[in-house]
Automatic annotation (TrEMBL):
Protein name: Bacterio-opsin activator HTH domain protein
Domain DmsR-like N-terminal residues, every copy: 2-126
InterPro entries: DmsR-like_N, HTH_bacterioopsin, WH-like_DNA-bd_sf
Pfam families: DmsR_N, HTH_10
Every HTH bat-type domain range: 145-196
Keyword Transcription: yes
Alphabetic keyword roster: Transcription, Transcription regulation
Domain of life: Archaea
Length: 203
């Protein structure tokens, strides 16, 4: 879907797939695009077949060999069904529900192993009761952070700035980012404030 969206400049939605029980390595997938977008019959050696149109959307089908490197299959092998997929401008967006934090960690590690450009865009915690009977909802939209704030947080985390004991101090992280220590602290404070606003539900 991501390759189709990039090659044809369309947004592809609602992917579904089926596996032949007699040939489990053979996968058939379908996705929909607006009916006004007529796709090529072949994109990057993948043959597309239009199977249905209702005037507003069109369904295309293609076949492929199953491999464990597909993002959706990386997620599903950990028991987390994919609930929504779309391809937009060459990027694949996938929504899934993890049973707990350990499952989420494993999914992120597996997808990241084969797709290092992966990004987590949103995390939502269920309203289910915790062990102590309390309820909590944690939602964070990564897009509220600027690119620079994301870079600062990522670099600080990778260098162990948040570890105890610290793997790097503010000056060392700033040097890695090639910015002044005061600038690093300013960006980090702004990013942390946004994170806390989401967690604590404050403005």
């Amino acid at each position: 879907m991501a390759r189709v969206s990039a090659a044809e400049d369309v947004t592809a939605y609602s992917m579904s797939k089926s596996v032949d029980p007699h040939a489990p390595k053979h996968v058939t997938e379908e996705f929909s695009v607006p009916a006004v977008d007529e796709l090529s019959e072949e994109i990057e050696e993948t043959e597309l077949e239009k199977t249905f149109t209702d005037g507003s959307s069109a369904i295309y089908r293609f076949e492929r060999v199953s491999d464990r490197n597909c993002p959706c299959e990386c997620i599903e092998q950990h028991g987390s069904p994919v609930v929504d997929v779309r391809g937009e401008r060459g990027t694949l967006y996938v929504v899934f529900h993890a049973a707990d934090r350990e499952d989420l960690r494993q999914v992120i590690e597996t997808v990241g192993e084969f797709h290092p450009q992966m990004e987590v865009r949103r995390l939502v915690q269920s309203r289910a009761e915790d062990e102590d009977g309390s309820k909590s909802l944690v939602f964070f939209d990564k897009s509220v952070l600027t690119d620079r704030q994301q870079q600062v947080l990522t670099t600080a985390h990778e260098l162990g700035y948040f570890d105890h004991p610290k793997g790097a101090n503010a000056g060392e992280v700033a040097d890695e980012l090639d910015i002044a220590t005061a600038t690093f602290i300013e960006h980090l404070s702004a990013a942390q404030r946004k994170l806390l606003n989401s967690i604590l539900d404050t403005e």
